[in-house]
Amino acid sequence: MRILSIETSCDETAVAIVEARGGTRRPSFQIMGDALYSQANLHAQYGGVYPNLAKREHGKNIIPLTRIALEQAGLAHERAREVKNVPEADWYTSHFDREPGVAEHFMDLISTIKKPKIDAIAVTSGPGLEPALWVGINVAKALAHAWDLPLVPVNHMEGHLFAALLQVVSKNGMSLTLTPPRFPLVGLLVSGGHTELVLAKSWMQYELLGATRDDAAGEAFDKVARILGLPYPGGPAISRLAASIPDGSSRFALPRPMLNSKDLDFSFSGLKTAVLYTVRGQKRLSDKMKAEIANEFENAAVEVLVSKTLRAAEMHDAHMIVVGGGVSANDRLRKKLTSTVKEKLPHTTLHIPRAVLSTDNAIMIAAAAYFRTNAKGGQNTTIRTATNMEALRAEGTMRIANN
Ligand code: KG4
Ligand code: ZN
Known about the structure:
Blueprint: E1 2-7, E2 12-21, E3 28-38, H1 40-43, H2 51-72, H3 89-95, H4 102-112, E4 120-126, H5 130-147, E5 151-155, H6 156-165, E6 166-168, E7 175-178, E8 185-190, E9 195-202, E10 205-211, H7 217-227, H8 234-242, H9 269-280, H10 287-315, E11 320-324, H11 331-344, E12 349-351, H12 355-358, H13 363-373, H14 389-402
Parallel strand pairs: 1-4, 4-5, 8-11, 11-12
Antiparallel strand pairs: 1-2, 2-3, 3-7, 6-7, 8-9, 9-10
The chain binds 5'-O-[(R)-(carboxyoxy)(hydroxy)phosphoryl]adenosine and zinc ion (ZN).
């Protein structure tokens, strides 16, 4: 089954084409196309994602990225240009009336290439930034309409869980399998918009065990970065600075909010405020102090995340701990989780996504969609080999940048 998947829930516009086979028991995935454009640099000036800018950028880039992904997959077969008589042109124009410019791009795409050999369109339907999500959803709906294909809505956080279980099995990084899940499974989802602990007793059945009561973990990294004058996204910037001094050498002490609370909830806004007061309390904030604050902040956030995740896994006898979302790229979190799980829960396995799959991408959306549709695999098709995921994306990014 070939799936064209779209992700626009935050500040990454991503389109992938994935061939899935093996059914839900032995799924495998071949990445045929993977075009991703990150708007992070554009949002940097605002210190966070600015929803209307995100929407505009998604609108500008999504169709060019779709074309790039189709070309990478060898599925963009040109046909005679018939722009003027796209069937149902009025339908598309009104369908995209809230996404200026997209209807024209869209009609140009479908009138210049033949219907590709694809079996379904998948799209992130939420949670995420509403204006951003709608761009992807509307494009997905229009593609499904134009090519008469089923549309599969995917939960973004479920996508992140799948990302953690995807394993690369080929040298070029384009063939993936899915580690078979062992239930019950505890998922820690940590991104710019979410901090959640979920329990899965089987696929597609989730129970929320705990969540943040205020800021998400990634949001806290982004806000603290802003306080320290670091660029957006804050996570990587804070990590780099924190790593520039030896651990344990920080003069500052920050709180570990809700570390000892009995529930599995989190709170990060107090930690951020504590950073703010610490900064305000200094007559002059030296670079060394900034590094010490970053180091202590990262330690505090990671300690709480690890402690609550372990508690959730213990309480529910989890066989697996699966981590997803942008913050799972954090090196300290990865190391601390790995060592703590090994020491305290030696029979529980820990699954953290590869760095390229930890932030938002469309591959995880295709993988989750395959499970949702529960389709039979096994089609015999030739697959165009691409060098690797990063190279494909770099190509897409360069072409968007040159537009
Ligand atoms: O999942 P994601 O790409 O987008 C959504 O929010 O859905 O996550 C982005 C978040 C940002 O807040 C970013 O600061 C954080 O993930 N992040 C990190 C790191 N890399 C990205 N946080 C901590 N350490 C990192 N290395
Ligand atoms: Zn995400």
